[in-house]
Amino acid sequence: MSHHAGLRRGRKAATATLIAAAAAVALTACQGTGSGDSGAAGSASDAASSSSAAPATGGGSSGDTGSSGSGSSADTGSGGQDASQTPPGKGAATVARTASARTAASASADSASDRCTADELGLRLGRADVGAGNIHTPLVFTNKAKSTCTLRGYPGVSLIQRDGQMIGKPATREGGAGKAVTLKPGASAYAVLHTIQDGLKDTPCWKSPYLLQTYPPGSKEAMTLRTDEPRVCGGEFTVTALEPGTGL
Questions:
Q1: Which member of 57, 87, 136, 152 has the lowest number of beta carbons within 10 Å of its beta carbon?
Q2: CA nearest neighbour of 230 among 199, 185, 198
Q3: What is the largest distance, in Å, between two alpha-carbon atoms of the chain?
Q4: To the nearest whole number, what is the mean pLDDT of the chain?
């Protein structure tokens, strides 16, 4: 074998070795890249899965539950502890006083120094005036004191059952506030209670009352009257401001 032939074979062997090594490096690089892409794709898939799952299980469900829970709690707070219902262990008198708070809230805030107080007044219902489907009944206050006093505005009026629960809701105000009424001893002022006859509206009539409870304007003391009138129908129950006289 000549010297030149040996060199050629050596060079070919070296070249083949280099090519094989380069191919191995390239293959390893490709595998590494594929593994990295697969890992990134997996991570992205996991992240997407977590992201899409969050509103359905975390945000949406717990948010809905929170809203529902809050609403339920609010409904229970407002409806479950109605002031017209008898609290456990409480008597009818307590309920009547509790219910009367609503009536007091609708009374006028007459703060005049000579204002007639509840203990100075007598109370009665006048004769009902029925016409054109309307029922108007005077609510009469009479000064029983030995000195002159005044009343101005709307009395608060509500109807009470025998067990102390309020029937329906307190009378709403009708018409203007009017002027102050000066009552000499024995003089009277009246407001008009209004409702309608049965059958004029689909709204059913309320139960007949056992007591009529009222607060004179500005008073924090209730007055009660034993009566089964008025029987409110059609959801119509209003009271006017006081004016002089008895309304008869």
A1: 57
A2: 198
A3: 154
A4: 73
Residues 174, 178, 182, 186, CA torsion sign: negative
Residue with tokens 């509206």: 201
CB 152 within 8 A of CB 180: yes
**pLDDT category of residue 107 using cuts at 50, 70 and 90:** low
The alpha helices in 80-188, defined as continuous H runs, are 92-106
**CA–CA separation, 142 vs 168, rounded Å?**
27
What is the C-alpha to C-alpha distance for residues 36 and 136, in angstroms, rounded to an integer?
90
Band of residue 84 on the pLDDT scale cut at 50, 70, 90: very low
Identify the three-state secondary structure at position 20: helix
Report which of 203, 190, 206 is spatially closest to residue 241, judged by C-alpha positions: 190
Q: What is the pLDDT of residues 212-243, one digit of tens each?
A: 999 999 999 999 999 999 999 999 999 999 99
DSSP 244: E
Measure the CA angle with vertex 194, ends 193 and 195; round to 5°: 135
Per the CB < 8 A criterion, the answer to whether 217 and 158 are in contact is no
Strand pairing partners for 90? none
Task: Give the pTM.
Answer: 0.60
Report the C-alpha gap between 41 and 187 in whole angstroms: 94
The letter for the amino acid at 65 is: T
177-198, pLDDT tens digit by residue? 889 999 999 999 999 999 999 9
